[in-house]
Structures are given as C-alpha cells and as structure tokens.
Structures
1.
Amino acid sequence: MSVTFISAQDALSRMAIPLGAPGGFSTIIDARSEGEFALDHLPHAVNWPSLNNEERIFVGTMYKQVGAFEAQKHGAAMVAANIARHIQREVLELPKNWQPLIYCWRGGKRSGSLSLVLGQIGFKVNLIEGGYKAFRAAMVEDIPKRVAPLQFKVISGPTGSGKTRLLHALAAEGAQVLDLEDLASHRSSVLGHIPGQPQPSQKRFDTLVWQALRGFDPARPVFVESESRKVGNLSIPESLMLAMRDSPCFELQLSLDERVALLMEDYPFFVNDVELFCHRLDALVAIRGKAVVEAWKSLAHTGHIDQVVRELLTLHYDPTYASSMVRNFTQNDKATACVAANRSPEALREVARQLCERVNA
C-alpha cells in the first residue's frame, strides 16, 4: 500500500503546480457527498462520494437512533459499493504513475477508505491530514499573504457608469482583472441579484477569490471594482477589502442618459418582469419611504421604467455611492477621471487602452 499523508499547507502550496505536471497531483478527489462538494471544494477537484447525500443522512440517522456499530456496518457496505463503482468508471484505464490527492471533511473514514483501496491497487496516493476543514483554514490564512504584494487599481464610478464593462474591456486588453461580482454571481446592489442564478456559498466564494489571487503576477497591476464589503450576501475577505480601499482610484464617467440606457440593457428584467422589478423596489422602503417607492411602482406599471431608473440613480444610488466612496476609499479625492464617450464596447475599449497605457507608463 502507498498512501502518503500530507499537511493542508503542503497541499495548498502544491496547488500552484498544474494537474499532471511533475511535483503536482494527477487528480484531486473529493470523497464527500455531492451536497458538501457543491458548497465548496478544492480547485479542480472532482467528486467521488464515498457516501452520497441520501446515504449520508441514512447512516447518520441510524447512528443516532440505533447505534454506532449498526451504522458503521451499513455505512461500510455503501462505501465499498460506491468505491467499486468509482474504480470501474474512472480507474481501470489509468496508468500506474497516476497520483491522486484525496480528501473528505476531516481526512477520516471516507477519504481513508478510498485511499486504502487505491493504495492497495498500487497507486501512490496523497491524503490531506485534517481534510477539507484543515485545507480551508490554511487557505483563509493564506489570502492576506496573496493580497499583500499585489498592486490594486480601483475602478470607481457611480452605478450604471459601466465599471463591469470596463473590467471586461481591460481583460480583453490583457490586463489582470479581479471581477468580484462575477465570482459572487451578483451585481452588488439592492437590484443586483441575477434572476435564476443563485450566489455561491461564502466558503465557495472565498475559495474562488483565493484561486483568482494566486493567479496574479505581483509585478503587474490588478484592476478591481470599487465594491462595498458585501457583494449581495457574500463578504469580501477583510485583507482584500482593506487593500482595495487604500489603492489608487480611477473614476469612470458616463452621462446620465447613457447610464440609464446601460442599466436597462444590463438588467433586462426591469422591462421583462415588471412585478419582479417592483418586488425588488420594496427593499428601498425603509430608506426612501413607502410613498416614493409606491410612486416608482406606479411609473413602472405604466411603462415608464426608464424614468424610475433615472430617479433611482439621482435620488438613491448616486448620493449613497458618493458618500460611501468618500468615507471608505482613502484615495478617492485623488481619483483619476476616465471619461467614456458612450456605453458602446468601442468607447469602453478606448478607455481600457488609455488606462493600461497610463498605469504601465
């Protein structure tokens, strides 16, 4: 049998090596249930459940109601059957030099059982001591170390100015971009939830942020949007938030008419689902008052969505955003203006080219 126990820190370090490359792992296997895997998992991991969701609940219930011995017998039978299926499906064609990294929740029975069988076959197996729980603790501790050497350039500008579009244009120009709203599946405002697209768990978001951070070259700037501490329901790691707030700002400026039109394009549900739009407006009652929100709803129901969006910008978003920037971003008063002629891709590409030239000069 060839099973090597490695620390979570060692596993973390070796994540930088591409899968299949010398010194790295051939495959990263998560032996937890599909539900646990969906909440979060190591980068590039595949899911080989030793117990699936239903089996895990069944064994857990038996453990509480009948006893540990009976639960372990039934659990062992299920784990053995599942491992057999994984081997039949995934392993039979693999070469002898295949070297997987395996983990479960705490590096116990589920990953240990799979590692035991694969090791007895003759594969060199790596098992994370402490499992996912230990890896996550090491990863969270590593995030500030990843943040520290990076040079962030904050794209600021009021709602609807095209900050996300500019990030995409910067990426197309070859710049390093950290798109937190994309990682969070949210557009970071009261109306920012994307219909039909749930946000990841906080743990998953943390892992996605860490994975993005470790891919950046510290010698080159990283562009990021001027986010608040939370993107929807998800919190940005504290060290990253502090670094962003202490970084140079580049304020994207776009006319009010263009901003209204941009939001109508980027938030099609404003027009396509007026009831959903009005439901979202209810979140502003505590801030703007019921009379104002009801007036906006009335305008929306009579087809004047663009007027509602305009008033949302001038009466709510713009004052709130300006106050937040002054309060939180230390270099906001020295922000460099970046004026976009309009909301078109061509105009934002031109801003991106000029911005890249400026920061790389």
2.
Amino acid sequence: MQTESSGGGLRDRLIDTGVALVDAEGAAALTLREIARRAGVSHGAPRRYFPTHLELLSAIARRGFAELGARAAEATEGDSQDARAQVGALARVYLDFAARHRGMYELMFRHDLLESGELGLRDTSLPLFRTLAELIAEVRPDSEPAVVAGALWANLHGVAQLWGWGSLQLATGADGVEPLLASVLDAHLGLVQR
C-alpha cells in the first residue's frame, strides 16, 4: 500500500479512483473499502477526508456534473445557434453523456445516495437546469420555464434510461436516439417545420 500522508493528493486520488470505478463497474461498486483498495490505501483512509460514504459519493458525482456542465457549455457556445438549437444541443450532450458514462450518470441522479443538500453538489447540479429553463423561456415565453424544463429533463432521462436498457430499440426499432430526441423536443418546445 502507498503512503496515506499525501493530504489533498490522497483526497483527489480517492475521488479519481471512485470516478474510474463508477465508469467501469457502476454505482453499486462504490464502497469505501473498494475505493480504498483500488487507491492503494487502508480501508480506513477515506474516512479522514470523507467522514461518510455519502460525502465520498457526492464528491464523485460532483466530478460527473462538472464534466457534463463543461460539455454542455461547449455545445451551446456561440451566437450562431438560436435558443431551440441550444436546447437540442444540451439534450444531445445529456443523452451522449448518459450513454458513455452509464455508471456516473446513474450516480449523479440518485440523490437518495448523495448528500443533495450539500452546497457543493447543488452548485454543480443546478446551473445546467437553470440554463435549460432560461433557454426554454426564450423558445416558449408563454410557459412556466422551470416546469417545461423539468418535464423535458424527465423525458430525456427516460429516453437515456430506456435506451441504455435496450427497451426503446426493441419497442421502436430505432437505430439511434435522434428520431426520439426530435419527437421529445417537438413535444416540449412545439413542432418545427422539417
């Protein structure tokens, strides 16, 4: 085992190890003992930095939210996209993240496993939702943007989950999520002439 006296380095290493573990094996694999073992430290070492299992899981989830937020910001940059196109870009990023990082995606939205009230987690999870609501206010000024954003998010979450389980492919015969995404956007933002 490696030395445990590296301070912030060990804290970051525990989080890095958790991120790699959740990506490889899913949220169920994220035990304190397994993270410590893979980080090369004693099973008690994580408790120095994360007094509870929830605190470590929340730190891992914050990394996922930070990555998703960075991808979303990159996808919506520039003045060339109207608000509807930006909502579509956010939705594609969300679905792509869910497909590529299934374990992290599962963890990020399991607030029953996380310290949801923790300021740091709220600060990383809510800005993306606020951005979505602001864009919806531009597309549908007659709506309650937070409600429409919540319904759209729930619909996207369902698409991500059902696609990941193979259910939507079976039910719809779709080869990709794009036709489903177009339908979701039309349902929540209004039909677009194609």
3.
Amino acid sequence: MFSTKTIMNCFADYFAKHPTSNISKLISIFSDELVVLENTNKQILLWREIDNAKGNALDLIGENVIQNRGVATDEVYRILLKSKIARNLSDGTINTIIQVISIALSTDPSTIKIVEKWNDVDEPEPAAIKLIELPLTKINEAGLDPLNFIRIIQRTVAAGVKVGVIELSGTFEFGDETNVIDNLKGFGDINIESIGGYLGAVYTPANDKELPI
C-alpha cells in the first residue's frame, strides 16, 4: 500500500516519476518508514488477542482484567488471563466450571468431566467436586503446576465448595491382541516424538510456587 510506485502514481504527470528522479528517491525514504509503521500497527492489532500477545502486551491485558503476572511465563499467563476473564462471568455451576477450564486451556469442553463427590462410592464428601478426564497434555504444554491449576478451579467454584483430587487419565495402554500397534497408546519412540501414549496422573495440592491467581 505504501510502496514508492503506488505513492508516485498519486502525483500529477507534471512530476518526473521514474525511479531515479529526485522526487522518487525522496518518496522512497518516506515509503520505507510508512511500511515499518504499517507493520507495527498490524502487530499491535494482532497482539490484542491473548493467544498472540507476548511480553509487555500480555501485561497490558493483565492490567485491564486486574490479573498480575507474578513469575508466570507467557504460556501460563495466558491461562491465568483467560481463566480470570471467564471467572468474572462464572455462576459457580459445574457447566460454567467446565467452560472456564476449556477457555483457559483452549480445549473442547467435551474433553473435561467433573464429578460431584457427595455421592462418591469410595470417599463421599458434601460440597466438593473432583475432576476427571482432563486434558493432561494441555496443562503440561503450558508448564502449569497442579497446585496453581487447582487454585484456578477453586476460584471458579461457588463459595464453600472444595476441589478435591484431580484425576488425569493418560492414553498409554498395552494391546490385547498380538501384532496390533496403536502409535498413540503404546510405547514411545525416542527418535519420533509423535509416537507413543502418555501416562495418567493423580494431582493433589503440593508446595509448589504460587502464582497471583
């Protein structure tokens, strides 16, 4: 849009428009700066989105929603920002909690399952929930530790409701038939990272570094 040729075409034919003319040389200086300015404006617009923003741009978004960064990396801070925005609209119901988690981790709500513990067969507990079938890979990719993730959920539930153990199921399993291979469930290949399943986990609160949630 701001190329020298485009700008020169806006001038009357009275002016010398060939590339070696003095006015073309002068305009080329301005056009280069205008291109840089245009690219900067495009970057500003792009970084208004939480998923695209980095560094100070994320901090500015955090100021708008009153969410401090603390020691969080950009990846973890994005989760904090998304969860804070979603929590502001939360009514504390299970469906809303699922929505908050799915927004924070950028995953489909169908990948998340929450169970109330009042009717738990093994350890019934009133006013408590536990999470199962949570996307473990999303948490790992962001580098978010279990305690801070539990704290995000605790801020989302209704007052007085306890978040219990978070059970995360992996994809790893042994085959039940001979010579049947599933690259997403079996042992991994050290040379090909996309091959192999991952183990599940049970997360309980620990003495990890706290984030300003």
4.
Amino acid sequence: MRLGLVSHKAFEETHIPEVTRPYMEAFEHPDRIKFTREYLRNSGLLGNQNLKIFECKPAARVDIVRVHSPYLFDVVGELSRLGYGEVGASSFVVKDTFKAACLSAGGAISAVEEVNKGSVETAFALIRPPGHHAGIGHSEGMCYFNNCAISVRWLQEKKNVKRILILDLDAHACDGTSQIFYTDPTVLVLSFHEYGMEAIERGWLEEIGSGEGEGYNINVPLPLGTWGNAYLWSFENIFPEVIRSFKPEMVVVSFGFDTHYSDPVGNMNLQAEDYAKLTRMILQLGKEVCQGRVAFILEGGYSLIALPLSIAAVISTILDSEIKYFDKIREPEKIPKIVRNVTEEIQNIKKQYL
C-alpha cells in the first residue's frame, strides 16, 4: 500500500515551552518528531519504496477560521508575537507557537488532500502541536488549533467530501472535536478514551450530539489501566458497525499514542503491537466501506521511547513491513466487566440512531 508521510523539519525545531509550569507543556516537545523520524530512518521504513514523503505548508487563515473563531486565531498569533502567554488551560505560547500551530493544521490538510486525490492510498501526518482539545473559541490541553477538524472542513468545503468519520484513539476525549461537530450529521465523531481520573471530565456516554447531529457523537469511555486486549475487544465490537452504518467517504483518524503503558500523561496500558492491530482493522474496514480512503493525524504520545516505536508500528502495518517490538509485556486475559458494560451501552446507542 502506498503511504504518504506528511511532516516538516520545523516541527523538530519550533514551539519549545520555556517555563516548567504547567508541567505538561514540557512533554509536548520537538523531540517527539525528531526521535520518531530517526527511528523510522534507522528501522528502514523511511526508505521503503511505497513511502512517499510530503513537506507540508502552513494552513491559511481562511482554513483555520472555517472551524475556529477569528478571535482565537488572532489571540494565538498576538501572544506568539509577544513571545509569552497562556492561551488556554495547559496551552502555553512562546514566540513560534503560532507558526507551529498553523503548520500543524496545514499538515493535516496535506494528509487528507493527498489521500483524496489518490496520489497515495493512505497518509500519516507526523505533526505537532496536537489539536483535538481545541474547540471553536478556545485552546486547551497543549492544543491550539484543531488540526483534524480543520482538515475535515477543508475536505467538505474544497473537495465536496460530504460524509466523514473521525475516529479518535487518543488517551483523552476529543472534547474540542466533539464540540465543533456536535450538531452536524455529516461528520460522525467516535472517540475511545480513558475515563475516571478528573473530577470534571468530558467524554461521557450521554454526550451523543444534539439537534440534527444527535447520535453522531459517540464516546467510548474506558477505565483507567485498560489493557490492549480489552481495548481491542471493545473496538472490534463497536467500530465495524459504526463505519458500516454511517458509510463515510473518508475516515480521518486522530491517533494519539498516550494510551501506551509507559506514557507520562495517559493512564492506559496499550503496547505498540496493539496499534498495529488497530491499524490493520481500520485499513480493512476502510477498504470495505470507503475505498480505503484513510488519513492518520498524530495527536498525543509523550514517551520519547514508546512514541517512535508506536508510530513505526502503524507505518510498518500500512507498508506491510515487519519491525521488532521491544515493549512487549504480559497482560491479563480477562476482559473487565466495566469494559463489557460500556461496550453494550454503546451498542444500544448505535441501534437507536444509526
């Protein structure tokens, strides 16, 4: 399968938080992209004959304000010019944050564009900062502009792609993405995420969309510490029915790797091989439903040891190339009752709306 890898050298050099407070910003660092690129090169994946590399360009203002308020666009830009400030919870701005955020959004657009026009069969946007917590008028959680949402609206506006499925596999609920599409029946948002750590959380089962969009926002909140086999069991019992019922023209995957057991931010217990299995299922169902039109957009993932291997697991699966997994650990065989209960409730929601 031909894969387009979309990235830019600037992701390895820009948007470096200069303060240690709040602590999470320090994890969203250029080394995420630098170390991943080095691992892909050393593993031979960058030299694969079916891999095509694309250099992205910044998203234009018109593309960003198609999703976000002009106020948010201007605030991120102005704080970056000042060189200092916090634009939202755990979203600190330095002098080149605006440049990186626009380039990241542009990378997501490039990924869906190359898939849409058929130059590659699927694409992976190796970009930062992430985007899925950014809502219409706010930045949050190390996210400034919502890369995935911007690319989806670009597809709908510029390429007349009418029905799109956003599959979010980050450790945290894609609250920004859900807000943006909450009343929109043309975009189905399906999010698998951890649940149960914070007093006030978003991503409840009851958050199903509203108005014309009712039933088109599906949250799968899984307990902290969920292992890969339970995560995959839930995925296998939900995703196939959702994609077959909705029949999207393209699938855009917000892929976060902070679900890895070694991640300093997430609280799940997935391993790199689990990401390969997820990728295989997504590609198979994408081929069945939407002619294989799938684009992967990088979200979280902050372990500098696990992230390169995890992304390599996805890319090697797409390219049908073997790599060695060095992070294997034993996991319990039993699927927790709470995972089964959540999955059953989601199936009831699907029956009602899809």
